[in-house]
From TrEMBL:
SUPFAM superfamilies: MoaD/ThiS. This is Molybdopterin synthase sulfur carrier subunit. Gene3D superfamilies: 3.10.20.30. It comes from the Bacteria. PANTHER family: SULFUR CARRIER PROTEIN CYSO (PTHR38031:SF1), SULFUR CARRIER PROTEIN SLR0821-RELATED (PTHR38031).
Length: 92
């Protein structure tokens, strides 16, 4: 089962600069474990204590997985997963 995972610029150092990589698994957590097996260190930048890190957003086919089943959200062949760091700004 091939699922495209889009990697943000800040994490591309783990994927040798690749903007997107294929991963496999039945859930988002499985995808992250698969990524970790090939790109050591990437999973700890996304997940902490079994949950998404506070400032990381993950989308499955444009839906925020936090509003689905979090990292236990099921994935299917052909799905797209996008990892995005949260962006915050401030006013003057």
């Amino acid at each position: 089962m091939a699922i495209e995972v889009r990697i943000p610029t800040i994490l591309r150092s783990y994927t040798d600069g690749a903007k997107a990589v294929d991963a496999s698994g039945e859930t988002i957590a499985d995808l992250f474990a698969d990524l970790e097996s090939r790109y050591a260190g990437i999973q700890e930048r996304i997940v902490d204590d079994g949950k998404l890190r506070r400032f990381i957003n993950v989308y499955l086919n444009d839906e925020d997985v936090r509003f689905l089943d979090g990292i236990t959200t099921k994935v299917s062949d052909g799905d797209n997963v996008t990892i995005l760091p949260a962006v915050a700004g401030g006013g003057i």
